[in-house]
Amino acid sequence: MDLSHAAIDFFWNQVHKFPATVSRGEPEPGDRGRESLMASTYWQSVLRRRLSRRRALAASGAAGASAAFLAACGGGEGSGGGPKDGSGLLTKPSDETGKPQRGGTLIAATATRFTSWDPMAIPAVPFKRDYNELFHLKAGKLQPGRGEVAGDLGESWEFSPDKLTLTVKLTAKAHFAPTPPVSGREVDSADVLFSWERVKAQGLYRAELANAVNPAAPILDITAPDSKTVQLKFKEPLAGALYLFASQSAMQMPIVPKEAADQGKLDLRSQVAGTGLWNRAEVQEDVRFVWKRNPGFGQDPRGQLPYLDQEDWVVIPEYAAGLAQFKAGAVHMFAVQAEDVIVTKQDVPALELMATKLTTTPRYVIIGQGADSPFRDERVRQAYSMSWDRDLFIDTTFNVSKFEAEGLPMETRWSSVLQGESWEGWWLDPKGSKFGDSARFYRNDIAEAKKLLSAAGFASGVQYASAVPAGHPYGPTYNRDIEIVVGMAQNAGFNAQPVQPQFATEFRRIYSQGSGDFSGLSYVNLFSAGVDPSNWFFRYFNSKGSNFYGFDADGGGRHQGDPRLDQLTTAMRLEFDEKKRMEIGYDVQRQVAAKMYFIAFPGGANGFDLAWPAVRNRMVYVDDVARPVGVTGSGNGAVWLDRTKPPFKPA
After folding, report:
1. Residues 6+ apart with CB under 8 A from 75
2. In the chain, N or C terminus with fewer CB closer than 10 Å?
3. pTM of the model
4. What domains can you pick out in the chain, each with its CATH number?
5. H or E segment to which residue 232 belongs
6. Contact between 642 and 613 (Cβ < 8 Å)
């Protein structure tokens, strides 16, 4: 299933310093329309100002130097190590894992709400605080993670010689939370079997995992030889098999307690009882969420985590109020908006400013395959992509120029169909020499885009339906980003006609979870980063994939897919040599670029995170979503509080 859920947008907003919204009832379509009009006016004016600046640079001869800098910062080929800090404002992360002060309560601010606490009901990253999978992805230490699989509930594992059976030994160090009815007991194979049956019956990823649900899915069955052993049977050898049970984003098969079979004893919609390092202990709607450390979490090689006793998420719906609380020291960590980072640091010099890793806008344009959709013609899709000024989008939404003006180091990347923050070596740089001819469809070329439209029979431009759901829970950046790309496309002759399907019904059924049976374009929130690329490519670009959006190589509208992509995505899943698998992945990226069946939003950049100095070991373990702590994504279970540092008062 797609990851187009409020949790994705909320956590991305936190990392990128844009405020999320709290809805006390879905807005009426008229309200959403007024919001969209206001956003369009504002962001188009921002784009015009930045475009004027770029033209001025070009007139002065500085554009070449600016472009060279952007290319140097773009990662991949010729990155040259990236830019250096010239601001004097940054604090470098310091590894203090070996000398923590245990105990205390970390206070963070949030503007989110949870409609359910069932980890199989919505694809929400926060549930990784409370639940575990069989495996997890190792965090990077002072650098991004590389997608290495490590044990979690599974302590050791072994494949049979034919790679069709995976035997997993469960750890004795993992215990459920010390609350009834699980009462801190050790996890066993019956919990895994119950979780598997529950995934098949109602899990969001049942079509991704269970062969009984989708004949293209890999898992035939899961059995238990004894109380501490499970065996997984696969229909064919799968190179990315372990990654199905080790996600960096939402969990595909969280292990939940067998007691949940009796909803009268344990209702996962409202009760939390997992094996994670945290246990949600208290909920005060619109006030705070309280997590206490799970004393039964013992499977991390760094020792007994978390170091904290408790973490409070204080609900502060208004951004200005949250910022004021943060500056006053009532909140230890807060998602400061990009445009406020510098002034907040200047106002409160004691705050520590750290650079975050590069992240990209987690959205994609999905293409309507209906009979009257102009986008069934690949030339129209190519023209649409060429209408985007990707550097301008990134500069506008990530505050790149303003940070650079302060001497802060910035790295930018364009996304291919794989987001630019993906594991090192898998992303193919559309600006690099290795991409090939289809990279031209990522470049901003309005004249060429108009030629393509004319050749497709649209010399006077294209009227198309642009479906943005009414009542969506994605927060303001979703509408903002769409308004920007819609405005850019208009320069090439694409004239959007707004359509507002209801989010909970029509949008999810027809658009985000459908098969392309609509006209025009729509927009979904998805992460390709932090997911095994071979599994992700198969999911969306193989005609048998669980989220195949119904395209055809010839635009015939028969939902038969692209034979070339079917061949590549199948071969990639079955290839165990990683270098060869990467090369196949590059070919997938080139083919999708040539056909533009699915268009990633332009790309992204690094950001900056502020916190009080009392929060120690921050930003040391990168991508440690399996051991999360703070809502900004800047921490993990290995952070601790030094109560001799601000905002704490000296004794």
Report:
1. 82, 358, 411, 413, 420, 427, 429
2. C
3. 0.84
4. 31-82+359-605 (3.10.105.10), 128-276 (3.90.76.10)
5. strand 229-234
6. yes
